[in-house]
Write a sequence for this structure.
């Protein structure tokens, strides 16, 4: 019989994580000043957040949240299906539906819960899910929890997805699930081809557009708008207010049958206390702001182009061709940690992204640009990257000697 207790086992497991360079720790941020943060007494340029349009500090969002606290208080005290649905919840769902040009919408407390609720609220044992291999952890977890049959296709391979759909059992519900813009690589799914595959096999195409809502498309509606698609019964859109829209919460926009199914079956919706009205009020205001201030998207696009151009000039390669997610592949987790540490020494906060968030051997720096950045700040980040690369090369040379 083993003499190890629970604490001993956990200590050993943590030691294993540490030895592989995969240990994580929380680093509290003391204050925000636009694109600058105070961390452990140091003022650092933030190049890792998802506030793509710079809305988290927008005065209209803050004022809307404060007015809602005054009017409704700080919480709801119940789940939506008991007595937690306030009028403001119903109003924002109508506004989300109009924004997404869908029949109906449902608000979730977080984007993670939106994915979890959408997949598990529709698929069940005996159903069939086809999922991109690079999908977000929330989608992976949702597929597992649904207990449906899950088939994974190579990244962005619409033909492989079509082939897998052709092998689904008859008379089951079929889901084809993808991100619109992939969170770690910044590339886009081939939505027109995936939608065609879904139509051929009478499946639902579920698109997690968390990193595209507010950013992509003429109206900021996401990748489907950017690619010229129209909402249809086969298309389920998932988005979040916690990135470009500057708040918190997620949503599902779809035909009424899908939304009614989620109200009745999505456990992350049914068994969670309703989000506070202040969160909803800020989310409502963000939808207005992105409609009234398209120059934020234009500025973001110009800044992203400048940053990519400067990176290319200095010999850095990235996996994404456009948009605010700009990954620089390092490979080894230890090297990625060293690069991030060297960046920190040069005044830039961009933590390393390592397994299991990304596949083994593809650790990286995931840099992001926001509309709040200035040209000189992006140039400073490039200079810091060059210095970090030089430090890494010196370390390798010394180790070789």
């Amino acid at each position: 019989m083993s003499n190890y207790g629970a604490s001993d086992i956990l200590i050993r497991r943590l030691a294993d994580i540490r030895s592989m360079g995969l240990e994580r720790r929380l680093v509290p941020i003391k204050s925000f000043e636009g694109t600058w943060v105070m961390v452990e007494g140091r003022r650092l340029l933030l190049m890792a957040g998802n506030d793509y349009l710079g809305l988290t500090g927008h005065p209209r969002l803050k004022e809307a949240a404060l007015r809602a606290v005054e009017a409704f208080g700080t919480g709801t005290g119940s789940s939506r299906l008991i007595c937690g649905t306030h009028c403001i919840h119903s109003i924002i769902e109508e506004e989300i539906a109009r924004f997404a040009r869908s029949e109906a919408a449902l608000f979730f407390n977080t984007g993670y819960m939106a994915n979890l609720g959408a997949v598990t609220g529709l698929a069940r044992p005996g159903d069939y899910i086809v999922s991109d291999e690079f999908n977000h952890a929330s989608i992976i977890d949702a597929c597992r929890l649904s207990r449906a049959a899950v088939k994974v296709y190579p990244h962005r391979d619409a033909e492989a997805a079509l082939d897998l759909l052709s092998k689904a059992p008859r008379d089951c519900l079929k889901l084809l699930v993808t991100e619109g813009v992939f969170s770690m690589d910044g590339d886009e799914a081939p939505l027109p081809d995936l939608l065609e595959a879904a139509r051929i096999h009478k499946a639902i195409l579920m698109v997690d557009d968390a990193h595209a809502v507010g950013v992509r498309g003429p109206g900021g509606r996401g990748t489907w708008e950017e690619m010229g698609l129209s909402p249809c019964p086969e298309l389920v859109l998932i988005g979040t207010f916690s990135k470009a829209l500057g708040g918190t919460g997620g949503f599902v926009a779809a035909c009424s049958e899908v939304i009614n199914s989620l109200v009745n079956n999505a456990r992350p919706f049914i068994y969670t206390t309703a989000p506070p009205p202040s969160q909803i009020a800020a989310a409502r205001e963000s939808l207005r702001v992105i409609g009234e201030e398209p120059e934020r998207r234009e500025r973001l696009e110009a800044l992203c182009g400048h940053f990519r151009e400067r990176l290319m000039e200095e010999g850095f390669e990235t996996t994404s061709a456009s948009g605010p997610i700009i990954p620089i592949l390092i490979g080894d987790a230890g090297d990625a940690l060293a690069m991030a540490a060297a960046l920190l020494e040069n005044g830039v906060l961009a933590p390393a992204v390592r397994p299991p968030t990304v596949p083994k051997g593809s650790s990286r720096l995931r840099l992001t640009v926001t509309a709040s950045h200035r040209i000189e700040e992006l140039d400073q980040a490039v200079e810091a990257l060059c210095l970090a690369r030089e430090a890494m090369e010196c370390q390798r040379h010394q180790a070789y000697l």
In short: The mean pLDDT is 94. The two ends are 48 Å apart (CA to CA). The longest strand covers residues 325-331. Residues 59-292 form a domain with the Aspartate Aminotransferase; domain 2 fold (CATH 3.40.640.10).
